[in-house]
Amino acid sequence: MDCWKEMKSSSWIYPTLILCTYGFFSAMKPAESFLTPYLTGPDKNLTIEEVTNHVFPVWTYSYLVLLVPVFLITDYMRYKPIIILQGAGSLITWLMLLFAQGVVAMQLMEVFYGMFTATEIAYYAYIYSTVSADHYQKATSYCRSITLVASTVGAVLGQLLVSLAGLSYFYLSTISLVSVSLAFFTSPLLPMPPKSMFFHRKGLSDTVSERAEKEITPNASSTNKHPGHQDDKDSVKSAANPSTSPECHPNTAKQQNHVLRVLVQLFKDMKECYGTKRLLYWSLWWALATAGFYQVLNYVQVLWDHRAPSQSSAVYNGAVEAIATFLSSATSMAVGYIRINWDLSGELALGIFSAVNAGALFLMHCTANIWACYAGYLVFKACYMFLITIATFQIAVNLSMERYALMFGFNTFLALAIQTILTLVVVDSRGLGLDIVTQFLVYGCYFAVISGIFLMRSIYILACTRCRREKQSFPKEHLTLKEQESEEPITTGSATRL
After folding, report:
1. Neighbour tally for 230: CB within 10 Å
2. CB-CB contact of 460 with 347 (8 Å)
């Protein structure tokens, strides 16, 4: 008991432990790798066209609609209520998967799953508002790694229960429901954070708030020159007119002004972040590639079921997901040991590995062999996780935690907007409503275009760098006196433009 009390009173161990426990049970879902066979099997009896063109698109639409309000409400409510809401969304999702029937019910289930994924930001942001900056690295690594471990455990467990025990998908869904229920009942144990990144910072009169206030109130600088004198004047006014005292009427106008200051500052921060050309291109790849990755992730089980129907073939979705998660963790970890100039070669890496992703998707489109489809998916997911780790590091290295969270949220929103367009045009029955094999041809072309953009950009960067080096190393004795006099400003200007 003494050990538990000591851990609970610690500034970071207790919330990290509870958050990791919540994350483990929230991600440990054995049935997730077998969702398409479950929906098209005897338990739900949906057709593959209904699942592809009517059910799965609803997740994309609901995720997009909920992301922006959830992003702002999450920070305003200081994360914990949103984590509880996330647990409730996951719980309702699996209850409906178990007991609801029909296309409309499954579409409503996808809405709740969209709420679950949209509120996921609260899980990753919570730790930064609870623990001190000294423990950010440890707490972040624990919280992120535990979800990967749980996902792997769930996939392996599901595969073993299907292949060795012959358990039906209904019982896998029951185990998943028990797991997310444990996560939901764990979430209220989290301590309420004393602050948040934007709306509840410590010290409301910090430099950022003052800058934002000056943007809204031009005379703010003059009114804040003598804070002590102003406080005295406010005290005299309150004493002379008791009806205006804070005890009688809450200062609603002040709260609204504070929210407006925060929103203005968010807009300014976002403008400054995307004003940097290097961050702009990394963010562009992030949004484009993440949209394609989510789209492939959402429909890859449908392709597998098309290549090897689950009613007549052995299904190895869980084993493939477990291996893919392991390879993704390995490639993400490898980024920390690669020592290259990412400013010079980063976009070349984006172009090359995006081309590899395009090749993997073309393979999945062309082949009728399920094992080749599995192999293509492993390559695709490992390459994406490798690149997104690099992009995350490159964006985060020069930003504060608040600005990184802002860029993360906006990049995710852009990715979902692009994915929504892809879904509406390619998948939805109101659009082209393409069959699953043709869809993967479109996704392969999509990643080929991304690869072309960044390969051309990297060639331009390398060519400019080479020209600049040659110009700097050109012998001065071969220049005329006039050229020598003008050499230095030309070189400097060229370097500035680049």
Report:
1. 12
2. no
- Report d(CA 290, CA 284) in Å as an integer: 10
Distance (Å, whole) CA 183 – CA 29: 11
Q: How many CA atoms lie within 13 A of 26 on its CB side?
A: 29
> Within the chain, what is the greatest distance between any pair of CA atoms?
87
Residues 139 and 15: their CA atoms lie apart, in Å, by: 9
Read off φ and ψ for residue 12, nearest 5 degrees.
-140, -25
Distances (CA, A) of 30 to 161, 173, 258, 317: 9, 7, 45, 10
Q: Which region among 146-160, 173-187, 234-248 has the lowest average model confidence (pLDDT)?
A: 234-248
Which structure tokens are listed for 235?
């005290």
Tell whether the model's pLDDT for residue 197 goes beyond 80: no
- Residue appearing with tokens 């430099």: 207
Query: What is the CB neighbour count within 10 angstroms for residue 13?
Result: 16
Identify the CA nearest to 54 among candidates 433, 461, 475, 473: 433
Assign 181 a pLDDT band (cuts: 50, 70, 90): very high
Question: Which token pair is 332?
Answer: 């993400």
Binned at pLDDT 50, 70 and 90, residue 438 comes out as very high
* DSSP SS3 for 418: helix
Flag the least confident range among 176-190, 296-310, 384-398: 384-398
Q: Is the pTM for the entire model greater than 0.90?
A: no
- Burial code (b: 16+ CB inside 10 Å, e: under 16) for 284-294 equals bbbbbbbbbbb
Per the CB < 8 A criterion, the answer to whether 455 and 351 are in contact is yes
Q: Which two tokens stand for residue 264?
A: 């203005």
